[in-house]
Amino acid sequence: MTSSALPTTTVSAEDFAEVAVGMRQAWPVSDSALAELRACLAPCRFRKRHLLIREGAALGKAYFLNRGMTRSYWIVDGQEVTTSFSTEGGLVFSMDELYYGLASQEYVETVEPVEAFAITVDDLRRLTCGNLELTNWMRVIHQNEYRRIHRSHKEQLTLPARERYEAFAAQFPSVCRRARLTDIASYLGITSSTLSRIRAK
Amino acid sequence: MTSSALPTTTVSAEDFAEVAVGMRQAWPVSDSALAELRACLAPCRFRKRHLLIREGAALGKAYFLNRGMTRSYWIVDGQEVTTSFSTEGGLVFSMDELYYGLASQEYVETVEPVEAFAITVDDLRRLTCGNLELTNWMRVIHQNEYRRIHRSHKEQLTLPARERYEAFAAQFPSVCRRARLTDIASYLGITSSTLSRIRAK
DNA sequence: GTTTTCTTTTGCCCTATGTCAAAAAATCAT
DNA sequence: ATGATTTTTTGACATAGGGCAAAAGAAAAC
After folding, report:
1. Other CB atoms closer than 10 Å to residue B131's CB: what's the count?
2. Is the entire prediction scored with pTM above 0.90?
3. Strands (E), A39-126
4. Structural domains of chain B, with CATH
5. Mean pLDDT of chain B
6. What is the nearest CA distance from B8 to chain A, expressed in angstroms?
7. Sign of torsion, CA B147 B150 B156 B160?
8. Is the shortest CB-to-strand distance from A195 to strand D under 7 Å?
9. Do residues A97 and A63 touch, judged by C-beta distance below 8 A?
10. Distance CA B31, CA B16 (A)
């Protein structure tokens, strides 16, 4: 074990259990690989509207979400453009930081109070590039993200605003209830006025 | 070595050299891993407008492109929606087939005469899930695709048609010259009439 | 080289959605 | 609770880009 930073409080196997179950839905990871990962985690909490990742910075952390929701967005000439939401069981990280050693291009903020396990991107990179099981697990994470955005992009190209919203609401009912109208609108590529009118029926 | 099908004609190290160079741009793969991969390849050629992958079918092959270009698309109520182009050095495959054992949801057709190395999806899956170097290499392939579509989606949400076209032309000048106007238009989510007018300046 | 087929261009009109702004409602802080 | 702030709703108007169809041009087939 060569954990490089963080763990001040250790995460118990019990606390980690839920994360483990979630991970195994993506790829069968052995107990020993999970134990290695667990040793690198530190529990943490954040209030609503806290920035976990910010553009132009390399904060060097990633988060396994246990409770709460986050939102990733770009700022494109002053406008926030929401690109994804993550909820319980999700892994929040900046690909730029994790793989390219760059500052993030996106922001990630908590939309609700969040409970999570933090890991340094160095540890996460070491584990997910050096261990076959975890490398495969991480590949599945990327695959899933790819499929989500691929689908979303397809819908963007083929469906009118109302149907995009309906598809979103059907696929992510929980997110749809918990997120602000404004953020959902920017995720769908429409204005909040339009989404408000759509919802008004 | 447990190659499962295909190789009637073996691919020589010389013929494979170009592919190897391309692969190493994504991830440092050792000679031995590359040799294992090479043993599973079969050279092949296709005329223009040949369907390499078709919706609802599991043809069971993936292709390393040496020469020529392909186009991936969905058919959404009768309309073709182009989702990507692949050129020399690219790997063409259906994620549904490769990882989910499903029939493909997309079509991939050759846009030009194509020279490629074919591999069965079974071999590709075995190699890219079972060998740490190749698993990492494949993860980078997914990452890159993810970033492309992420960017493209962002542009879809923030730029007007003309600027999307300009960004596309700047990022993929070769594709922009080689692909039909119609296909580029559908990739950008605009009609061919609109793209024609944009080009007319 | 002619004919056929496929692709691009162009014109005209139309609608989904954007823009801007102000009022109403909800949420937050004290 | 009460006022301050943020978010959502609603209205009036503007426009980018779609739909359709015909003509022009290019490529493929014979």
Report:
1. 19
2. yes
3. 42-46, 51-53, 61-67, 70-76, 79-86, 91-92, 107-110, 114-120
4. 13-134 (2.60.120.10)
5. 94
6. 31
7. negative
8. yes
9. no
10. 12
